[in-house]
Amino acid sequence: MDYPEFSSRVCGRKMEQDESRKRQLNMLDTLAEYCDQNGLRYFLSGGTLLGAVRHKGFIPWDDDIDINMPRPDCERLYRLTGGKLGDYIVAEPDEDGFARGCESYRLYDFQAVVESYSGGIAKEPIYYPLFVDLFPIEGLPDGKWQTKWHYFKLVFFRKMQRAAALEHMEASNAWAHLFHILAYFPAKLMGYRNWSKWVQRIALKYKFDDQKYVGVMTAPVHTTEEKIRKREYLETVEVPFEGRFFHAPGNYDCYLRQLYGNYMEMPPAEKRQSHHRFNIYWRKSKW
Q1: Which of 58, 155, 197, 284 is the most buried (most CB within 10 A)?
Q2: Residues of the chain with pLDDT under 50
């Protein structure tokens, strides 16, 4: 598919937060309706699920939507839609042309342009469409140390993949910057696309349908704490989010405690802020 340009040249009026949230909710509504009509499983996840349980909507300082889907359902979603879901684009991992080091599926809104300053030490922003992450839920091994090793390998290959994609040695801290300096040449030698293939190969090692435990492997924040019992996870319950109801894991309490501890307790005031640094604009001309 030929994608339109995403740069400062196509940025129109800046969106207010309520406008960008409404765009993302429209994407979520479209996805949820399609999944229910076609027997596809999806679940609110991460901060989106936390917001649903604690705030019945967005966390006040949050600015995105995260969805988990079993890997077989992600693959079926892409096959059924052919990459087009209503007004939105469904992209496979690392095949969208915008993200650097994105191993999840994504649902894109091409009418909204994100200007991101989250690249670390790089001064120039990058531009891409507004999106909802669709994180594949993978099968995981039973053993604790097997699971740790499995995630360790994937995290290492993801870091090498990102190093291969960097143009300005971006990093969020000094240690990450040092790693990128040391890894830059071997990462470039192997090539971004090869690292991406290795990431997917590791994530797919344990089949979702065959394992007792499952978890997301390609989310950028959490690792082994994502591991959860599949049977209880798939016992879907409904939770409120911004005046609607969406699917959540049956064992969401266990899932949220593993990720956030006492998740119903509000964090200190100084931590009530987004970890993202971006602006969102309306696209000047309709795609």
Answers
A1: 58
A2: none
